Amino acid sequence: MKTPKNILLPTDFSNNSENAIAYAADLVKRNEGELSILHVFDVPFMAPSSAFTTREKTMKNTEDDMRSISRSKLNDISSSSLVSDIPNLSLVRKGEIEEEILEVIKEGDIDLIVMGTKGQTADRGLFMGSVAKGIVQHAPCPVLAVPDEATFNGVTKIVYATDLQQDETITINYLVEFAKIYDASLIILHIDHENEVKEWSIDLLMDMIDKTSYPKIAYKEMVLNNVTQGINEYIEEHNPDILAMTTHTTTLYDKIFHKSITKQLLMHTHIPLLAFSDRKHDAIFFG
């Protein structure tokens, strides 16, 4: 099982994406890993009235300029106080953001993506909630989505929201190892739709929790029909530092239901969301 040593930080150089740097840098320091900082740009379409060769030259100049500016801004991040004392690598790519992120993961040994997210009403930026959601669904590693309201003050409490509809062994073991990095408490939160979950599911979970031998793990159950409301209420009352969730894709109903919940949380939650795709567990933990 991998702990997040090598971290990919995509950035569009906005204030929001910079907010994620502190989370990524601290994890790298604690695990003696490496931070890869990625910027992806796309050359805008240009259609001058001159000949094609002139347009081609203009496009090439534009690409070179954008690449040069990107590298300069990445150098500023690399030399900042948060990053300068940890191993880091700057990457500039041209293309579509999600495709390039997935390509960088394939080429390297990335354990975790840390990226900034913006809410639905925020000024339009590169990392809207929908983009972050797409990365969560397709990346072969966990994603820590950091909203623009979040401020890094360490990690003392992590909440994992689960519907108990699948085997949680791999995810919970990963979260225990993640919590140990910070000596943080880990709360397994289940929002039950009028006691729909069978007792044996809860018994299996409690047995799993006991087997972790982690003294700072606990189970909490809430009976509420609105899952998003329940999660948000728990967050407001208990102030965790990270919310964790798995996006399920086993059935059409699960896919629609959980994508909707994840999207709402990415849009409205003011703390980072550590998200897993259940399709990627083998790649995450045994790659």
How would you sum up this structure, described in words?
- This protein is α/β, with parallel strands linked by helices.
- The chain folds into 2 domains: 6-147, Rossmann fold (3-Layer(aba) Sandwich), CATH 3.40.50; 157-286, Rossmann fold (3-Layer(aba) Sandwich), CATH 3.40.50.620.
- Helices cover 44% and strands 22% of the residues.
- The chain has helices spanning 15-19, 21-31, 52-78, 97-107, 129-138, 169-182, 199-212, 227-238, 252-268, 281-286, and strands at 6-10, 34-41, 88-94, 112-117, 143-147, 157-162, 185-192, 217-223, 242-247, 273-277.
- It has a 10-stranded mixed sheet, sandwiched between helices.
- Strand 7, helix 7 (199-212) and strand 8 form a beta-alpha-beta unit.
- Helix 5 (129-138) crosses helix 9 (252-268) and helix 6 crosses helix 7.
- It starts with 5 loop residues before the first strand and ends with a helix.
- 37% of the residues are buried.
Tell me the overall shape: elongated
Q: What is the CATH homologous superfamily assignment of the largest domain?
A: HUPs
Structural class: alpha/beta
Q: On the 0-100 scale, what is the average pLDDT?
A: 79
Order of helices and strands: EHHEHEHEHEEHEHEHEHEH
CATH top-level class of the largest domain = Alpha Beta
CATH fold node name of the largest domain: Rossmann fold
Beta-strand share of residues: 15-25%
* CATH architecture type of the largest domain: 3-Layer(aba) Sandwich
Query: What share of residues is helical?
Result: 40-55%
What's the alpha carbon Rg, rounded to whole Å? 20 Å
Q: How many domains, in number, for the residues?
A: 2
- Poorly predicted runs: 45-52, 120-128, 280-287
Strand order of the largest sheet: 3-2-1-4-5-10-9-6-7-8
